[in-house]
Write a sequence for this structure.
């Protein structure tokens, strides 16, 4: 039952993120949540600071969830985050405590051209 509630909370979170609903987007976090961006070396502490940092971003962004998997208190969302029309393939790892996100780590990967050495085995994804 707890996993169904977490999954429903994640569905609401990503829908709110895509709609630029900053209040709805951040209801999933604990007050003392920590967000980390390893690629830029940033750590943001506290739900309010996480929300303010995202609201301050000037870019138009869209979220397209590809899949959500998880169990217990660890959930992973694979999605495409599009800033001003440019996609970034993203993974969000969320650790829950008492039904809310205590820690989130996000990884971003920009698209790149396929390698010719794999061409005979690879098909193009949409």
């Amino acid at each position: 039952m707890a996993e169904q509630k977490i999954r429903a909370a994640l569905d609401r979170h990503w829908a709110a993120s895509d709609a630029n609903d900053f209040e709805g987007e951040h209801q999933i976090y604990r007050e003392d949540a920590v967000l980390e961006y390893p690629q830029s070396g940033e750590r943001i502490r506290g739900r309010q600071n996480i929300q303010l940092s995202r609201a301050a971003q000037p870019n138009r962004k869209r979220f397209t969830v590809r899949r959500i998997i998880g169990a217990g208190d660890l959930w992973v969302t694979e999605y495409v985050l599009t800033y001003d029309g440019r996609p970034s393939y993203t993974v969000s790892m969320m650790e829950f405590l008492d039904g809310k996100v205590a820690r989130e780590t996000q990884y971003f990967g920009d698209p790149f051209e396929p390698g010719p050495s794999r061409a005979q085995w690879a098909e193009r994804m949409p």
